[in-house]
Amino acid sequence: AAGVIQSPRHLIKEKRETATLKCYPIPRHDTVYWYQQGPGQDPQFLISFYEKMQSDKGSIPDRFSAQQFSDYHSELNMSSLELGDSALYFCASSLGRGRTEAFFGQGTRLTVV
Amino acid sequence: RKEVEQDPGPFNVPEGATVAFNCTYSNSASQSFFWYRQDCRKEPKLLMSVYSSGNEDGRFTAQLNRASQYISLLIRDSKLSDSATYLCVVKSLQDMRFGAGTRLTVKP
Predict the structure, then answer these.
(1) Of A35, A42, A56, which is closest to B100 when you measure between CB atoms?
(2) Which 3 state secondary structure label does DSSP give B55?
(3) I need a labelling partner for B43 at 20 to 30 A (CA). Which of A37, A86, B65, B101 fits?
């Protein structure tokens, strides 16, 4: 069965550069969540989308923005990268909000040097 | 205070042991509840949903107490392969929040 696809899997950027992370949800899933997971930490909720509209916002820095497109894929844009942005970024998708389970992509490992 | 609080762990248990994890949540509008398992540097994977009546899947039993806003996971007859971090997840219409995770190590 198709899973959540994230690209790229690994990314190395320098400080102050920009990065774009992509997430392709499971077909027919209309809800996307983004998380940031630092070493030894739990996933921190960044932002979510439902039917191409922002649903909720968590601890997402102002330097980051995201959107969900008409084909339901989502992109997380990160600017003015800082060393502290180095983390695993996970995307998850679900069908609808609320009661349905969510499935995660394999994540993008971002390293800022 | 975090929206989802879990036992800090870590739990180190011998094979065959029974281990229980607890989780509390603060958002009374939460609609659904799950346990995920995360292996080192991998994505979280759904272990089981948690239903109000309690549910069981093999060696795993999950319980939900909406009045106390409390969720639990019981693992019986622990296997070496159960070693992982277990994440309590609470979903509302707007978001999906994780607990800090409880690290379980099952030793021979």
Answers:
(1) A42
(2) strand
(3) B65
| B10-49: pLDDT as tens digits | 999 999 999 999 999 998 888 899 999 999 889 999 999 9
Q: Residue B66, SS3?
A: coil
Mean pLDDT of chain A: 93
Q: Which amino acid does the sequence have at B100? A: A
Out of A41, A45, A107, the one facing B96 most closely (by C-beta) is A45
Contacts of B96 in chain A (CB under 8 A): 33, 45, 48, 92, 94, 102
Instruction: Report how far apart, in Å, the C-alpha atoms of B17 and of each of A47, B6, B59, B104 are.
Output: 39, 20, 11, 12
- A30, two tokens: 């209309």
Query: How far A28 CA sits from the closest chain B CA (Å)?
Result: 18
Q: In whole angstroms, what is the distance from residue A32 CA to residue A99 CA?
A: 14
Residue in A with minimal Cα distance to B51 = A99
- A37-49 confidence digits (pLDDT tens): 998 888 899 999 9
Q: Tell me the pLDDT tens digit for each residue of A69-84.
A: 999 999 999 999 999 9
Q: Are strands A10-13 and A108-112 parallel, antiparallel or unpaired?
A: parallel
Rounded CA separation A32/A92 (Å) = 6
Whether residue B8 has pLDDT greater than 90: no
CB within 8 Å: B94 and A42:
no
B91 in Cβ contact with B30 (< 8 Å):
yes
- pLDDT exceeds 80 at position A97: no
- In this complex, do B44 and A105 lie within 8 Å of one another by their Cβ atoms? no
